[in-house]
């Protein structure tokens, strides 16, 4: 019975059914399985204890059953959800990862995860900072903001920058990077509380609550009488349409996400793409995966304030994830799995 | 009465009313005004005799009355339409342009045009070629194809290239440039005659008649089982939507025009722009104006076969222009104003 001696209960959040339309907490379930806390002899795998797992909008796509393969794999029914998290190594057969190491990478929504390929994880070089930052400002959203803003949009001092979903994990960082670059920055968000945060805490020059604007086009004209040079695209749909009408010649649209469309059975059409031709706009999608080789350089460069919304415990993970799509979170949403 | 001695009748095509929806020949009118064949003393203007004027899809936008200024000025009611043409200088106060010079540039749909700023015109350095080529392969459409394909889409040998409106002025050249670059090239067009031309004359690897395809997405999957690297966008709308589903990761979409949308009172929406994010696509508009400084370099580089559709005489100009929007033209459409 030696094999059972290293088995422990392993609470996990599993997907119960594939989702169409708006997801609900009930599409997920918290169950208890078991985990082994050792790696098989000769394996280069590692076992990690998860400390924080991140709630990110792109996860909605993984809750759909795709006919053609998507850019990230669909979740597997009955298995733990998978996303970026912060973990401590508790067993390792990999020469680069030792027991006790703090790491971040693609892990399970569960207490313990067996990681077959530890080399996909990053070491945490600043454990003196709040570890949860490695799901945000120093993790995937941070690298996303940094790559999208600097590498894709090629900002110049004085550029007029608009950020949608501006108080979220990525948006709040884009705004601050833009201010550091000498840009004029306006953000949109879905509540007065978030708008207030943009102006008082994140240093946006202007901000508005898009849910209170009768006419998005007019709101943008009010904020950008000279037009927009850079639109950091997080939402898609009607906001993108209003932005296209207000872009300046040679404007750039780094396309990071389109959260307004993820839960629609029939996405909304954007009817004024001809502005891309007439104004010589560049709209360019990007993925954080393509910038992982620059992570440690980024980690050293990055600093700044950051707002988090931490849910305590895996039991609250489904609600935290669903909250993203109604905008309930204020700042970067994540889940504390274990407080060490 | 000396002033009248250099006045001659000047036949011209004028816009009678601003257009909504599909334009008709009756929106234009051929009238006879007068022109002076001299320039005022001390002026640096020139007078040109127009030989060919070009019919280009973008002209539809200039037939609309815009509330906000468009990227090119609206036509002026009662004045001659304005577009690129080939002309001979018959009077000049400009040191760089002499009587007898052959030039091309933005001129009037009329027999004689007073050009206040001759420096916006290009000299024709190869008068041994058919002069009409300077409205096509050696003119604006040629420079457009060259700039959009090489500078915007950054092609590599082996890339899979799709061109819409492929037998038109720009498309036929893009296809040939792509073949010269070692790409696999498929074109779409709106008649079997055009499709045949693409395969037999322009060297496209494959071509299809989009009007005969029940399902554009399926047609593209058939032609591009591995997906599309470069889509040279001339049409917009449902074709763009079908293409986005078939793009490969890191694909590029130089956006040259969207002719399918120009005559719609309410443009069609494109619903699957999320592919831009997921596949890290770059969609980038461009304008030939931005490449005029490279024209003479381009003129020397360019060669190849080219199909034209020449209407004889200004009387046939309105029908030639309208024909663009129903696809009646085969190849580059232009109007011969005067055969010297």
UniProtKB/TrEMBL annotation, chains A, B:
<keyword id="KW-0560">Oxidoreductase</keyword>
<dbReference type="InterPro" id="IPR020843">
    <property type="entry name" value="ER"/>
</dbReference>
<dbReference type="InterPro" id="IPR041694">
    <property type="entry name" value="ADH_N_2"/>
</dbReference>
<dbReference type="InterPro" id="IPR045010">
    <property type="entry name" value="MDR_fam"/>
</dbReference>
<dbReference type="Pfam" id="PF00107">
    <property type="entry name" value="ADH_zinc_N"/>
</dbReference>
<dbReference type="Pfam" id="PF16884">
    <property type="entry name" value="ADH_N_2"/>
</dbReference>
<dbReference type="GO" id="GO:0032440">
    <property type="term" value="F:2-alkenal reductase [NAD(P)H] activity"/>
</dbReference>
<feature type="domain" description="Enoyl reductase (ER)">
    <location>
        <begin position="26"/>
        <end position="335"/>
    </location>
</feature>
<dbReference type="InterPro" id="IPR011032">
    <property type="entry name" value="GroES-like_sf"/>
</dbReference>
<protein>
    <recommendedName>
        <fullName>Enoyl reductase (ER) domain-containing protein</fullName>
    </recommendedName>
</protein>
<dbReference type="InterPro" id="IPR013149">
    <property type="entry name" value="ADH-like_C"/>
</dbReference>
<dbReference type="InterPro" id="IPR036291">
    <property type="entry name" value="NAD(P)-bd_dom_sf"/>
</dbReference>
<comment type="subunit">
    <text>Homodimer.</text>
</comment>
């Amino acid at each position: 019975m030696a094999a059972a001696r290293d088995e422990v209960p392993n609470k996990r959040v599993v997907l119960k059914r594939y989702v169409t339309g708006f997801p609900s907490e009930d599409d997920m379930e918290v169950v208890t399985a078991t985990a082994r806390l050792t790696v098989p002899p000769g394996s280069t795998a590692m076992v990690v204890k998860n400390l924080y797992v991140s709630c990110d909008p792109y996860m909605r796509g993984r809750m759909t059953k795709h006919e053609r393969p998507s850019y990230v794999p669909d979740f597997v029914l009955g298995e733990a959800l998978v996303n970026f998290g912060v973990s401590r190594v508790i067993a390792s057969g990999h020469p680069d990862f030792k027991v006790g190491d703090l790491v971040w990478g693609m892990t399970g929504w569960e207490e313990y995860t067996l990681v077959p390929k530890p080399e996909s994880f990053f070491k945490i070089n600043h454990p003196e900072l709040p570890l949860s930052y490695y799901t945000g400002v120093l993790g995937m959203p941070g690298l996303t903001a940094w790559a999208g803003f600097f590498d894709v949009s090629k900002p110049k001092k004085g550029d007029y920058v608009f950020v949608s979903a501006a108080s979220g994990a990525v948006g709040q960082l884009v705004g601050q990077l833009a201010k550091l670059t000498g840009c004029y920055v306006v953000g949109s968000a879905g509540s007065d509380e978030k708008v207030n945060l943009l102006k008082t805490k994140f240093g946006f020059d202007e901000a508005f609550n898009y849910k209170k604007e009768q006419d998005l086009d007019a709101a943008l004209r009010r904020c950008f009488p000279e037009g927009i040079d850079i639109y950091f695209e997080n939402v898609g749909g009607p906001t993108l349409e209003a932005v296209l009408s207000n872009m300046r010649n040679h404007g750039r649209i780094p396309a990071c996400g389109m959260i307004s469309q993820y839960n629609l059975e029939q996405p909304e059409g954007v009817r004024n793409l001809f502005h891309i031709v007439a104004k010589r706009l560049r709209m360019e999608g990007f993925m954080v995966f393509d910038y992982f080789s620059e992570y440690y350089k980024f980690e050293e460069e990055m600093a700044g304030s950051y707002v988090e919304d931490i849910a305590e415990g895996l039991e609250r993970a489904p609600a935290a994830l669903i909250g993203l799509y109604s905008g309930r979170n204020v700042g970067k949403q994540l889940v504390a799995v274990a407080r060490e």
